[in-house]
């Protein structure tokens, strides 16, 4: 007896850059996609145990991937709005984290972020924070796929009181998480060049290389960042990392707003990846990342929301919309960065950046991370192509989520945990 799940009578988008299939089915066996096609081709073995899901008036597509988040910061959403980056960080966020971040907070607030992401069609996330073991627990309990990275700083941080142990603490975290659950993978998150010394950056990068895990770092987010680097080895944050040997093909640089021509050439030659967070960049007045110039140099450019404290939403549909539109405004060219490119960035490209194998398409053998979008509503009628999803849809249009072959959300109801209980826990922490 083989357990399988079949979504029937749907509009199917196996790859976001290709045309959809009308009146289609998608078959899932175990954790992967088995096959798909038109309903006329569907055959079901009566001996199989089959879960059948009606896809009528639904567009079924790969789940979205959020390539940068600080999930536990849901607790700080709306706490310090309308401030520039350094004031926001130094006078509000860092003190709040020192006072409030603990294992209980990270677990419940990460679980709340998981709920928000699931309900808005995100099936995978790259998270970077502290007490990251508890974040991993939250991802496992919620059913989400995640790359969980432990933070590295050169001053006392939640869970790492002695900065001299900052990299060692991450190594111990990787040991604990590796192999624990197939949906959750460990990584290293060096906060930034202005909160980590050159020596710390080198040791953190060596740890990621030795363990074969991704290395994340905030980079070139603000115009003033170079002046904040205590011991600069280069004339810009990018040149600084390059001089240290940190910038390479496994280095995922977050933000990348302020890059000059030399930075772009260095970055392109190293084979690294950039993740930009359009909502956060605008809210903190950081600027608009030169995504078009990066893409021209074959730099992989992905999308993330950043944490709730600087966005304040975790809806990747908003990020895709703003990604395309800000690049059009930045270049003063309406044809720049299409809706289709934004969809690819939020699915396949983000999957490659995060090292998630066979995540981001609904092809046979690929992971069954699936979302269904309710097309039976005014703002999605008519829907001529998937471009409409970028410019008109929102996370609240998602009414079906399957992750790793497991039904996680249906008809806007999360099935893996008690959301009311999680929200009550976060309210207590507030």
Task: Set out the fold topology.
Layout: E1 3-12, E2 21-29, E3 32-38, E4 49-54, E5 58-62, E6 64-69, H1 85-100, H2 103-119, E7 122-129, H3 132-142, E8 145-152, H4 166-177, E9 184-190, H5 198-211, E10 215-219, H6 225-228, H7 237-244, E11 251-255, H8 261-270, E12 273-276, H9 278-283, H10 291-296, E13 300-303, H11 316-331, H12 339-353, E14 370-374, H13 387-391, E15 398-403, E16 406-410, E17 413-414, H14 419-429
Parallel strand pairs: 1-4, 1-5, 6-7, 7-8, 8-9, 9-10, 10-11, 11-12, 12-13
Antiparallel strand pairs: 1-2, 2-3, 5-14, 14-15, 15-16, 16-17
What would a concise description of this structure say?
The chain has helices at 85-100, 103-119, 132-142, 166-177, 198-211, 225-228, 237-244, 261-270, 278-283, 291-296, 316-331, 339-353, 387-391, 419-429, and strands spanning 3-12, 21-29, 32-38, 49-54, 58-62, 64-69, 122-129, 145-152, 184-190, 215-219, 251-255, 273-276, 300-303, 370-374, 398-403, 406-410, 413-414.
How would you characterize this protein structure?
This protein has 430 residues and is of the alpha/beta class. It is 35% helix and 24% strand. It contains 14 helices and 17 strands. Strands 1, 2, 3, 4, 5, 14, 15, 16 and 17 form a nine-stranded mixed beta sheet that branches. An eight-stranded parallel beta sheet has the order 6-7-8-9-10-11-12-13. Helix 4 (166-177) runs parallel beside helix 5 (198-211). The longest helix is centred in the first third of the chain and has 17 residues, at 103-119. The mean pLDDT is 96.
């Amino acid at each position: 007896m083989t357990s399988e799940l079949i979504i029937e009578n749907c509009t199917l988008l196996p790859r976001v850059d290709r045309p959809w299939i009308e009146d289609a089915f998608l078959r899932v066996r175990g954790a992967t996609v088995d096959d798909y096609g038109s309903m006329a081709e569907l055959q079901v073995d009566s001996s199989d145990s089959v879960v059948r899901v009606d896809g009528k008036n639904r567009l079924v597509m790969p789940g979205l991937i959020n390539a940068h988040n600080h999930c536990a910061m849901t607790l700080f959403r709306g706490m310090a709005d309308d401030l520039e980056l350094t004031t926001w960080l130094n006078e509000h966020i860092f003190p709040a984290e020192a006072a409030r971040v603990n294992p209980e907070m990270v677990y419940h607030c990460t679980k709340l972020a998981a709920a928000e992401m699931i309900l808005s069609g995100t099936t995978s996330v790259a998270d970077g924070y502290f007490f990251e073991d508890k974040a991993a627990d939250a991802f496992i309990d919620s059913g989400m796929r995640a790359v969980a990275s432990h933070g590295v700083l050169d001053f006392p941080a939640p869970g790492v009181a002695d900065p001299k142990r900052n990299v060692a603490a991450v190594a111990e975290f990787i040991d604990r998480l590796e192999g624990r659950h197939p949906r959750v993978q460990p990584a290293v998150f060096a906060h930034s060049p202005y909160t980590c010394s050159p020596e710390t950056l080198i040791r953190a990068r060596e740890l990621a290389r030795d363990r074969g895990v991704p290395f994340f770092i905030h980079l070139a987010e603000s115009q003033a960042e170079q002046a904040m680097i205590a011991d600069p080895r280069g004339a810009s944050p990018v040149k600084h990392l390059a001089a240290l040997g940190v910038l390479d093909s496994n280095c995922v640089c977050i933000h990348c707003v302020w890059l000059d021509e030399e930075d772009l050439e260095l970055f392109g030659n190293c084979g690294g990846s950039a993740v930009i967070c359009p909502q956060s960049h605008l809210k903190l007045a950081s600027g608009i990342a030169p995504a078009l110039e990066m893409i021209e140099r074959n730099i992989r450019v992905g999308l993330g929301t950043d944490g709730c404290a600087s966005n304040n939403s975790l809806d990747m549909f908003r990020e895709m919309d703003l990604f395309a539109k800000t690049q059009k405004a930045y270049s003063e060219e309406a044809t720049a960065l299409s809706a289709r490119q934004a969809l690819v960035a939020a699915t396949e490209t983000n999957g490659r950046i995060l090292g998630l194998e066979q995540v981001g398409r609904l092809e046979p053998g690929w992971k069954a991370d699936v979302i269904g979008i309710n097309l039976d509503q005014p703002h999605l009628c008519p829907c001529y192509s998937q471009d409409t999803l970028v410019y008109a849809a929102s996370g609240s249009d998602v009414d079906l989520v399957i992750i790793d072959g497991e039904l996680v959300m249906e008809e806007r109801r999360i099935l893996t945990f008690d959301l009311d209980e999680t929200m009550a826990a976060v309210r207590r922490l507030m």
